[in-house]
Amino acid sequence: MKSAVVTGAAGFLGSHLCDALVAKGYFVIGLDNLSTGDKKNISHLLPQTDKFIFFQCDVVEPWEKWVAQISASVLQQVEYIFHFASPASPIHYKRLSLETLWANSVGLGHALNFAQSTSARVVFASTSEVYGDPEIHPQPETYWGNVNSFGERACYDEAKRFGEALIYSFNLKHQSQHGIVRIFNTYGPRMSRDDGRLIVNFLKRAQENKPLMIYGSGQQTRTFCYVSDLIAGVMAYANSNICEPLNLGGFEEVTILDVAERVKHSFGDKVGVEFFEATQDDPQRRKPDLRKSLEILAPWRPSIGLDEGIERMAEWMRQCD
Ligand code: NAD
Ligand code: UDP
User: Which of 43, 101, 210, 236 is disulfide-compatible with 297, CB 3.0–4.6 A?
Assistant: First the structure.
């Protein structure tokens, strides 16, 4: 039976990735230290012991402990290692700054070394943050970025940039075919209510009848990708033989104020907004140049617009209450 390893399996994206892999017939080995993830995101998979196994562990620690518990025949069948373990929300990576640096460097190193013994392909979850506060818009993969290496976002931005460099050098040295997806803001069910990222935070505040919090002027922009579109892109990338980084994200560029208006509207305009000081080094304009991804990963194409995605996410959050 073909198998795959997902690090960060109990997180938002990792858990959806586990679902997609199980649906495709993979035996999935999920790893997570539950620092920002939650076992309930994978609770539906846990009884399926012939399809899914979970180890609560820190990917920065040596991997031998959990590897020893997997049979050699399963290990030989590992085709993919999706390295998604890392704090991802600004509030969490600022709180867990050293852990973030280690997860994307030492943790990724363990994934690459493990892949050597199984001939698996590693797919590393990189980020639009490698472009920092971009001076080029939209951001193509060829843009080198505008990143502060000595500030509060540096632990995340530079850790992901290091991870990309590690994969580049590893491929060169070992003639391996590991790859990188640069994920732009993605949202959807299973984001923790305490995640702090924009859409889940706005919806949480609106559901609690509290004003939406806007950091800075609200004129800064992002695009937003619904989780099912993102996972389809990650799977298409894994299935390709591409090793260079590809952008994955949504099309529509919106201001934070625009997102606030949409969330307010979906709650019958009953919630207000409050403004707070901008956070340090907050990227002012962000939008992926998706031309390369659309060409290479065709027919992949994000299909769920922001209004529909917000409605789906709000409905999911209501059901969780
Ligand atoms: P998340 O916080 O929901 O998931 C991350 C998971 O990794 C959590 O379950 C956490 O417990 C686990 N983890 C963290 N450090 C670990 C460690 N040392 N050992 C084992 N497990 C560990 O966040 P997410 O949005 O699902 O992000 C997943 C990955 O995708 C991250 O690498 C993130 O940088 C990347 N990414 C996400 C987005 C997005 O918009 N969601 C954008 C860019 C990149
Ligand atoms: N933001 C906001 N209110 C919130 C959460 C986020 O105004 O409740 C802003 C944040 O300052 C940033 C943008 O929304 O300008 C996107 O933030 P998020 O944390 O979702 O991710 P980022 O793109 O910064 O990694």
Answer: 236
Q: Name the DSSP letter for residue 126.
A: E
Q: Where are the domains of the chain?
A: 3-188+225-250
Active site residue 156: yes
Q: Is the CB of 88 under 6 A from ligand 1?
A: yes
C-alpha 1/C-alpha 95 separation (Å) is 40
Q: What is the dihedral of CA 209, 210, 211, 214, to 10 degrees?
A: -120
pLDDT tens figures, 70-84: 999 999 999 999 999
What's the confidence (pLDDT) of residue 268? 87
Whole-angstrom CA distances from 249 to 85, 103, 185, 264 are 19, 23, 7, 24
Q: What is the DSSP string of 146-210?
A: B--SSSTTHHHHHHHHHHHHHHHHHHHHHT---EEEEE--EE-TT--TT---HHHHHHHHHHTT-
Show the 3-state SS of 103-118: HCCHHHHHHHHHHHHH
pLDDT at residue 321, as a whole number: 80
User: How many Cα atoms are found within 13 Å in the side-chain-facing hemisphere of 290?
Assistant: 21
Q: Which amino acid is present at 82?
A: F
* Closest to 153 (Cα-Cα) out of 84, 90, 105, 86: 90
- Give the predicted TM-score (pTM) of the model: 0.99
In tens, the pLDDT along 112-130 reads 999 999 989 999 999 999 9
Ligand 2 touching residue 92 (CB < 6 A): no
Residue 197 DSSP label: -
Residues 99 and 22 sit within 8 Å (Cβ to Cβ): no
Ranges in the chain, pLDDT < 50: none
Percent of the chain scoring above 70 in pLDDT: 100
Q: Is 294 in the pocket of ligand 2 (CB under 6 A)?
A: no
Fold of 3-188+225-250: Rossmann fold (3.40.50)
Cα–ligand 1 centroid distance for 190 (angstroms)? 12
Give the ligand at the shortest distance from the Cα of 66: 1
Give me the pLDDT at residue 4, please.
Answer: 98
Cα 71 to ligand 1 centroid, rounded to whole Å: 27
